[in-house]
Specification:
This protein has 635 residues and is of the alpha+beta class.
Length: 635
């Protein structure tokens, strides 16, 4: 194998026949172009420095576990205090050139950058997936899932955060959240940046993709024809349609590693250790003080002490796993696994995820969509590598976002219950090369529905249930920290979720009948597996949903934030683990309820606020002790 073909093997792209041969030519071409034009050097910050094991200190003031969407933020902000030593541990390695390319997002799943989690089989969801198990990609890389995601910048609804505060979490209301959203943001749209709802000059670049297909305009026009406004969905009102904004910098992915760690890579008080898999937090069972972490690196077990705090930012799957392996979790589960119990908490419970319908696809009668043969060409590669433009800058194919109201929502309340991801293509657009694998589809399912339209022009919309009532759980598979946890999302265990999503599907189908889309023909692709139901009936839509149940990869809630009287709460409103000193969780797992939108921007907000909570606690403690000393000395 040539050195140019090696990235194909590293990405885990098991490819077959025609689409595979196109892709096998395209990826090396893209990598060659990026290398030749030194694309990475356009970025003013070089890569993070990986500290060798023998250069690590015996102890740090703060140890941050996980360099993902929250952890990168926390480590960057804590290291702003020069006399604090910070260690950031990441189980994966650094980003790759391919992960920078926005359109290639789906091709990162099932690669070495992905934990490759799967849900446990569920009898009434994910039926079109192999083993009835949905894929749950999670980033195992610097930047975490902000390297695997579709880069969409969505904050959620103001009411989401006011609900958090109303549940007994002071300081987490919408005004507080807006402050931290703006603190991070460097919005490149001059119109939006001038409003009260956006920021400039932050670490995180937010912009539209520099390229759009004609379908993006049709999406906005179709929304208007349905009575919805074209508006900033991250502004004063959420309900409406918008061309997608994302974490894009100069046409390339802006992960949290690129945004928050590269600019501070030369700080002497910040050490980063990649390929360091944390297995447990070290907690004194008598005093219940977290005093360090244990991790595996280079097949050796290492332990490092924390003088002030350990911060878990490993995400909604790994943070509860690490807590339970450390003796913090549900008493009965830990006893069954013979893990010494230190603190009995409902770790792993309250699991929530956004679920939607995949494969809601409409045929086009014009060559306007994203297809493998059209997009993966020399001209598009050169456009991207030299200018940072062209179709490769489209965020995983998603060009538009919308928030709409079903009959179950109060339309006057601006609290929509369905989100649309509008895609200028669908599962068939790469000819079966990778997208079907990313979704874990059964070969037979794909063959019946998508094989006949492979690489043909289509558009699709994914209706997503914004605030599911169903709750799942994450449990340990065993005491072995290298064994993947058991993931039970329990999709549609509350029937109201299905009823709401069915109404969302109907609105998506109605979008296809607007003049904006009728000009493309927009004929819906049917699911033969559901044809025993009457077409367009609720039963037909339900059958589609139960087959092509598509998660948008937004797990949250497994280390729930709540007041002391909340029996399900794992952390308090300062994100401190109940009953354990010196241990916090700062990531998506602390969210008590699901936000009404994509979770990446909210997790970055949580990272920003969490870092400030730590600073406030420790800096105030220092100032208080100084005041006491002055008072005692008569100054």
């Amino acid at each position: 194998m040539s050195t140019l073909m090696a990235p194909l093997q590293g990405l885990g792209l098991g490819l077959g026949a025609t689409a595979a041969s196109n892709l096998a030519v395209f990826i090396p071409l893209l990598l060659t172009a990026i290398a030749y034009y030194q694309y990475e050097l356009i970025d003013p910050e070089a890569r993070p420095i990986n500290t060798e094991t023998d250069e690590l200190l015996e102890s740090y003031d703060f140890i941050v576990v996980g360099a993902g969407s929250a952890g990168a933020v926390v480590a960057s902000r804590l290291s702003e205090i020069e006399n604090w030593n910070v260690l950031l541990l990441e189980a994966g390695g650094d980003e790759t050139e391919i992960s920078d390319v926005p359109l290639m997002a789906a091709y990162l799943q099932l690669s070495q950058l992905d934990w490759k989690y799967k849900t446990e089989p569920q009898k009434d969801a994910c039926l079109a997936m192999q083993g009835e198990r949905c894929n749950w990609p999670r980033g195992k890389v610097m930047g975490g899932s902000s390297v695997l995601n579709y880069m969409l910048y969505v904050r959620g609804n103001k009411k989401d955060y006011d609900i958090w505060e109303g549940m007994g979490n002071p300081g987490w209301g919408s005004r507080d959240a807006l402050y931290y959203f703006k603190k991070s943001e460097d919005n490149q749209n001059p119109y939006l940046a001038r409003t009260l709802y956006h920021g400039e000059g932050g670490y995180l670049t937010v912009s539209e993709a520099p390229y759009h297909t004609p379908l993006a305009k049709s999406f906005i026009e179709g929304g208007k024809q349905m009575g919805y406004m074209n508006r900033d969905i991250n502004g004063e009102y959420q309900t409406g349609f918008m061309v997608a904004q994302g974490t894009i910098r100069r046409g390339s992915r802006c992960s949290t590693s690129k945004a928050f760690l590269r600019p501070v890579r030369l700080r002497k008080n910040l050490h980063i250790a990649m390929n360091a898999h944390v297995t447990r937090v070290l907690i004194d069972p008598t005093t219940k003080v977290a005093f360090g972490v244990e991790f595996i690196r280079d097949r050796m077990v290492h332990r490092i002490r924390a003088n002030k705090e350990v911060i878990l930012s490993a995400g909604a799957v790994n943070s509860p796993q690490i807590l339970m392996l450390s003796g913090v979790g549900p008493k009965e589960d830990l006893i069954n696994l013979k893990i010494p119990l230190i603190q009995n908490l409902r770790v792993g419970h309250n699991l929530q995820d956004h679920i939607g319908l995949g494969g809601l696809t409409f045929m086009c009668n014009q060559p306007v969509s994203i297809t493998l043969s059209r997009i993966y060409s020399v001209s598009s590669v050169m456009d991207y590598a030299i200018l940072g433009g062209g179709p490769l800058t489209i965020m995983g194919g998603v060009e538009g976002l919308a928030f709409v109201n079903t009959k179950y929502a109060n339309a006057s309340d601006d609290f929509p219950d369905i989100e649309f991801h509008f895609i200028s293509g669908s599962t068939n657009s790469d000819g079966g090369a990778q997208l079907k694998k990313a979704h874990g589809l059964k070969e037979a399912f794909y063959k019946v529905i998508f094989d006949p339209i492979n690489s043909k022009d289509v558009w699709s919309v994914i209706p997503v249930l914004l605030r599911p009532r169903s709750r799942g759980v994450i449990k340990l598979r065993s005491r072995n920290p290298l064994d993947y946890p058991l993931i039970y999302p329990n999709y549609f265990s509350d029937d109201f979720d299905m009823k709401t999503l069915i109404e969302g599907v109907k609105i998506g189908v109605a979008l296809s009948t607007t003049p904006a889309f009728k000009k493309y023909g927009s004929q819906m692709v049917v699911f033969p597996q559901c044809m025993h139901h009457e077409m367009y009936s609720d039963a037909y839509w339900e059958c589609m949903i139960r087959h092509y149940s598509v998660t948008i990869y937004h797990p949250i809630g497994t280390c729930k934030m709540g007041p002391y009287w909340d029996e399900e709460a794992v952390v308090d409103p300062q994100l401190r683990v109940y009953g354990i000193k010196g241990l916090r969780v700062i990531d998506a797992s602390i969210m008590p309820t699901m936000v009404s939108g994509n979770t990446n921007a909210p997790v970055i907000m949580v990272g920003e606020k969490g870092a400030d909570l730590i600073k406030e606690f420790w800096l105030n403690s220092i100032h208080s002790s100084r005041r006491r000393r002055r008072k005692g000395s008569g100054i």
